Amino acid sequence: MRDRVSGVVLLRSTGDALLQRRDNIPIIRDPGMWVFPGGHVELGETLEAGAHREFLEETMYDCGELHPVVVYRPEEIGYSPGCEVAFFWCLFDEKQSIRCCEGQELRFVLRHELKDLPVPSYLPRVWDLVLDALARKAIRR
Description:
By secondary structure, the chain is α+β, with helices and mostly antiparallel strands. The protein contains three helices and seven strands. The strands form two sheets. It has a four-stranded mixed beta sheet with strand order 4-1-6-5, with helices on both faces. The radius of gyration is 14 Å and the shape is globular. The chain starts with a strand and ends with a helix.
């Protein structure tokens, strides 16, 4: 069975996204880096259901509708062979609160602030894909 991981890009209307600072433990992927919240998809879960569950567990925020962004093969982003990595996005409802239940910290970050943060190489690309999808969605309205 392939290892599957899903993450969620939670955006405010201003374009800033919620990032999670991972624990600084050498045996985990991306220790100490800022990432989009998410995690491993369980057996029998869809990528979307896994993203929703993991995001809720890590942030106590119940995402509304999740929109698919991209699915990467492991070699595209430096993950181990056999690992599929998917990202989804949704808009922050400005009503629910967010609580850090995993990692060191959660906070909304502006796109230009990434240059000052340790992030995995794929993160800016995923964020840009989400911003493009959001712009296309706004144009269709």
